[in-house]
Amino acid sequence: MRVLGIEGTAWCASAALYDAETDAVLIESDPYEPDSGGIHPREAAEHMSEAIPEVVDAVLTAAEAEHGPDAIDAVAFSKGPGLGPCLRTVGTAARALAGTLDVPLVGVNHMVAHLEIGRHQSGFENPVCLNASGANAHLLGYHDGRYRVLGETMDAGVGNAIDKFTRHVGWDHPGGPKVEAAAAEAAAERDANGELVDLPYVVKGMDFSFSGISSAANDASDDEVLIGEICFSLQEHVFAMLTEVSERALSLTGADELVLGGGVAQNDRLREMLATMCAARGADFHAPESRFLRDNAGMIAVLGAKMAAAGDTVPIADSAIDPKFRPDQVPVRWRDGDAS
Ligand code: ATP
């Protein structure tokens, strides 16, 4: 089966071809890069409507050049969660394409796709999944036909919390990679036992909060604390919170596998902390390569293929987007007998 996936929940217009027989994934992406500040929803939507036709055309042309006019067996699209105007462009493109090609349509939950790509690649049977993305942060575990939310942010998404600080200090979007670079530079120069900048560390069971930490980091920069020191401390706090709740989830569920997903998962320090924690308790850890971590249509196409194989397709009339689509709303039909 070959599936064309379309993704565009916020900033990245992306299309992909997934060939289930060879497990090959071709991804074309066109990110929205704001001139200044963060993601402006109207500009993101305008970017989406210009870029989606181009990335879809590029993937479709490549697919038909290699496999002929019947290259595509199904079209999968991100149905939510995300920005409504962006999702509407994606949904419209997917419906039009599925209708034109006369193939089934699959509506994919973007957050479930962020974790299923890690499960697919690692071959893990039943992992706990940490989604560390821009607008979200949550821990998922599979139980009784659904991905259950074991814990989540009580306010900001993890990437958004970091980006809020970088906007305050005048850095371009996305802020995460710049914080990572500044923190690594500071780490190389600082005393290993040196004090951290005092920032709030808020974990309640398996839930956590990031909104106070952005404000405290902003205040520290106004007080002229060295930026590198703030970046280092911000990462240590935020990633320690995520590591603590992940360990608690592993402990409470008895799982011995952890997969990581989402754009913030590109951060080496976060991966290092999680890998160290997993090694200490004898659990396996998997983080996909970068192109599958940030928003990308590859993960949509891969999960779309599993859903289509399980008969989980939607008639066009029932294919409305859902900006608040939660992972635990998805009946998981593709895992039965699925070892991947
Ligand atoms: P969601 O998937 O929740 O809709 P999103 O659409 O914002 O989120 P993602 O691609 O998952 O997109 O994540 C983007 C976020 O990842 C941004 O906030 C960005 O700053 C952050 N990010 C990217 N690279 C790094 C990095 N190396 N370290 C920390 N954060 C990073």
Protein traits:
Nucleotidyltransferase, domain 5, 5-stranded mixed beta sheet, 9 helices, 340 residues, 2 domains, globular, 44% helix
Low-pLDDT segments, ≥5 res: none
Hey, roughly how much beta strand do the residues contain? 15-25%
Strands in their spatial order, largest beta sheet: 3-2-1-4-5
CATH topology of the largest domain: Nucleotidyltransferase, domain 5
Task: Determine and state the CATH class of the largest domain.
Answer: Alpha Beta
Helicity level? 40-55%
Radius of gyration: 20 Å
What's the end-to-end separation, in Å? Answer: 15 Å
Largest sheet: 5 strands, mixed
Write up what this structure looks like.
- The structure is a single chain.
- 44% of the residues lie in helices and 20% in strands.
- The protein is of the alpha/beta class.
- The chain folds into two domains: 2-114 and 292-329, 2-Layer Sandwich (Nucleotidyltransferase, domain 5); 123-289, ATPase, nucleotide binding domain (Nucleotidyltransferase, domain 5, 2-Layer Sandwich), CATH 3.30.420.40.
- The mean pLDDT is 95.
- The structure holds adenosine-5'-triphosphate (ATP).
- Residues 9-11, 82, 110, 133-136, 157, 159-160, 162-163, 174-177, 180, 262-264, 266-267, 294-295 line the site of adenosine-5'-triphosphate.
